[in-house]
């Protein structure tokens, strides 16, 4: 199969107003140890470059992403690494490019790529993907029924920052049997594994590509593979299209031009595809105008599908799908890889929801994410950012074992905008106000008093059910572009928080924004990477407090974080937050629920089964961290107030490492600062003329947006 190895690098630049592509292609053929590069004004898959071109072009120096041939020597890769300046890590609110490409771009690029060249399947890497972060793993995209290999068009830029992206192109006239296709992909996987044995290899399979990914995984159980399957075609024998297949086979060739239009509406939802580049924050009227324009531009492009899937190719692909589904299903028992299945609720081609449940039961290490409003072509539709899903599922890693700190990717600008949009009502209701303390002790509105250089640890009070978390993390990003990484209860990272319907949840968002399971090791790594860390010493005991315990601290006796902060010279910022008593009234607490005969046994048994003891060796009230859901009644919303105290420097204070009593004194000082901050806010909020939502709404109607509503003078 080495003779089949061809590599195509294609890039397309689009004028977003006119959608007229200008394409450039680079092709390298590695058969018979020859390498050739050619450039054209359109994407071409055939042709031979001149000897002069071969001399000038070094395939090891090609621009882009994923261009390093599998099996290259360590010395060659080291030289390549020295010559390229690769970014070590991403900054918060980085540009992932999501929302700048749509299915129109897919159609325009496909028009050039599908031009017949008589060649076999080959890999290509879109130049817009690279270069990736240092030590990024390889991602191999295995396309669906179209075979073009551009199914990740909406995700190229985002994935290309953290993966070496290779896409499989299957020419329209190619008739490679399924098992030979498996051999071809398998050869690439094995070569990559031999080149980087300690890195995972990602296989993203779309529909037919999902069968291909499962087949390769089943034949290579010892290779570290991560499979992301988008509506895999393993359920093809139960497809809703089965009654139509005889019709598709019998339709005259003169009428075949109608079939792609039919399939386009079966495989994709046009409105969601057209929404991919519409900004969700736009006013409704303008958003509708953009949507109408996108739909108008999309419909004429559907004719390209007739060229992508002519009749003879369609009949071949249907046979290929049958053999692919049969082959993959017969080998599911041999799959040991990590698997993430993306299942659409509106898939009119395959029963993807039921199939995802079957795969979850059949595979040993499988997680499902369900998207109830999406269709079969989920990767080309609005609202499905593939990298976001991978991050939320904790599936991104650069080595054999996932490291929640070192493998973390910060939220992108598009992710943050989406989060702000989804939390718009919550932000409107709570109207949070942030205060911080400067070095001279002056209290100012905003977060300017919090140091921008880490390591920094924010230590404070945990409200009922963590009501304060959303605003705290969002405001640090909005005002300072600082990501605050919260130390969280281990239950939030367990399968217990997965809902039965497997949808993308609030807990996935926690992971995207850097929530980290509580442990000394993770805190050590966060300090080492100079992060801004959010710590609640009171933990679940404060967040699930009882009646009459509002604003009461339940901190352990031991200074758990002070000595480690001193070891890294971290700055400690104590903070207080109030306002939960203006948001809700606690009606049923733990003591009330434990008096109910049936319910108390249920709560007790659940806590025993979960066995999540973040402080198993702690004593006193803080050790009573039984998990339960309190009952409360909402109030007419007031306002949340935050006060970050004067930063406490630990750099150079070596006595904190050696003298436990000194560390305890600082610990008690921090605790006192948190209590004083809350007392200060409780008094000052009485002076706030916009404490209630009614007053804030009236002010916003005439004067300012939500983040500019005045408050008391500090």
Automatic annotation (TrEMBL):
Residues 178-252 form the Serine aminopeptidase S33 domain. It comes from the Eukaryota. Residues 53-85 are annotated as: Disordered. GO terms for cellular component: membrane. InterPro entries: AB_hydrolase_fold, DAGAT, Hydrolase_4. GO terms for molecular function: diacylglycerol O-acyltransferase activity; hydrolase activity. GO terms for biological process: triglyceride biosynthetic process. Gene3D superfamilies: alpha/beta hydrolase. Signal peptide: none annotated. Transmembrane segments: none annotated. Keywords: Acyltransferase, Transferase. Belongs to the diacylglycerol acyltransferase family. PANTHER family: MONOACYLGLYCEROL_DIACYLGLYCEROL O-ACYLTRANSFERASE, TRANSMEMBRANE PROTEIN 68. This is Phytyl ester synthase 1, chloroplastic-like.
């Amino acid at each position: 199969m080495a003779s089949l190895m061809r590599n195509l690098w294609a890039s397309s630049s689009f004028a977003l107003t006119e959608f007229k592509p200008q394409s450039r292609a680079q092709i390298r053929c590695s058969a018979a140890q020859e390498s050739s590069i050619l450039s054209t004004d359109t994407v071409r898959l055939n042709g031979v470059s001149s000897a002069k071109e071969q001399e000038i072009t070094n395939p090891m120096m090609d621009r882009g992403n994923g261009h390093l041939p599998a099996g290259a020597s360590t010395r060659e890769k080291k030289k390549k690494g020295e010559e390229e300046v690769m970014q070590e890590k991403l900054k918060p609110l980085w540009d992932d490019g999501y929302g700048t490409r749509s299915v129109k771009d897919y159609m325009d690029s496909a028009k050039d790529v599908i031009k017949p060249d008589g060649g076999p399947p080959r890999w290509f890497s879109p130049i817009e993907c690279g270069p990736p972060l240092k030590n990024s793993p390889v991602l191999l995209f295995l396309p669906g029924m179209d075979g073009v290999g551009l199914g990740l068009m909406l995700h190229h830029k985002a994935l290309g920052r953290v993966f070496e992206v290779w896409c499989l192109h299957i020419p329209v006239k190619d008739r490679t049997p399924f098992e030979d296709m498996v051999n071809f992909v398998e050869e690439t996987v094995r070569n990559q594994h031999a080149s980087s044995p300690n890195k995972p290899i990602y296989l993203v399979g779309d529909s037919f590509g999902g069968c291909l990914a499962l087949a390769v995984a089943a034949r290579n159980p010892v290779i570290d593979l991560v499979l992301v399957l988008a509506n895999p075609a393993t359920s093809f024998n139960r497809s809703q299209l089965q009654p139509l297949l005889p019709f598709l086979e019998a339709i005259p060739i003169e009428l075949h031009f109608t079939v792609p239009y039919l399939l386009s509406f079966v495989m994709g939802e046009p409105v969601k595809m057209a929404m991919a580049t519409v900004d969700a924050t736009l006013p409704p009227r303008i958003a509708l105008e953009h949507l109408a324009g996108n739909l108008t531009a999309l419909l004429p492009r559907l004719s390209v599908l007739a060229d992508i899937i002519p009749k003879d190719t369609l009949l071949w692909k249907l046979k290929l799908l049958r053999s692919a589904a049969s082959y993959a299903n017969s080998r599911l028992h041999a799959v040991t890889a990590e698997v993430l299945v993306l299942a659409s609720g509106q898939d009119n081609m395959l029963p993807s929801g039921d199939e995802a449940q079957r795969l979850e039961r059949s595979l040993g290490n499988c997680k499902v994410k369900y998207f109830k409003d999406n269709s079969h072509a989920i990767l080309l539709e609005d609202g499905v950012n593939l990298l976001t899903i991978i991050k939320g599922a904790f599936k991104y890693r650069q080595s054999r074992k996932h490291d929640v700190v070192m493998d973390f990717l910060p939220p992108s600008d598009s992710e943050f905008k989406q989060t702000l949009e989804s939390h718009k009502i919550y932000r409107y209701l709570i109207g949070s106000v942030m205060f911080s303390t400067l070095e001279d002790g002056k209290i100012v509105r905003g977060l300017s008093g919090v140091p921008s250089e880490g390591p920094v640890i924010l230590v404070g009070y945990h409200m009922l059910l963590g009501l304060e978390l959303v605003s705290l993390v969002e405001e640090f990003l909005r005002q300072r572009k600082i990501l605050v990484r919260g130390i969280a209860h281990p239950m939030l990272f367990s399968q217990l928080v997965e809902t039965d319907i497997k949808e993308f949840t609030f807990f996935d968002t926690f992971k995207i924004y850097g929530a980290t399971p509580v442990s000394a090791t993770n805190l050590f790594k966060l300090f080492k990477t100079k992060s801004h860390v959010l710590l609640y010493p009171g933990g679940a005991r404060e967040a699930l407090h009882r009646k009459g315990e509002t604003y009461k601290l339940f901190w352990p006796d031991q200074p758990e974080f002070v000595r480690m902060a001193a070891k890294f010279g971290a700055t400690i910022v104590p903070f207080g937050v109030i306002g939960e008593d203006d948001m809700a009234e606690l009606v049923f607490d733990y003591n009330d629920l434990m008096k109910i005969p049936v319910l108390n046994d249920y709560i007790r048994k659940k806590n025993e089964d979960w066995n999540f003891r973040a402080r198993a060796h702690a004593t006193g009230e803080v050790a009573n961290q039984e998990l339960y859901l309190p009952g409360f009644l909402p109030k007419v919303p007031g306002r949340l107030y935050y006060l970050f105290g004067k930063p406490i420097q630990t750099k150079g204070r070596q006595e904190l490492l050696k003298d436990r009593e000194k560390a305890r004194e600082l610990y008690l000082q921090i605790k006192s600062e948190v209590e004083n901050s809350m007392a200060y806010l409780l008094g000052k909020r009485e002076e706030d003329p916009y404490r209630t939502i009614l007053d804030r709404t009236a002010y916003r109607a005439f004067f300012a947006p939500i983040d500019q509503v005045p408050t008391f003078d500090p």
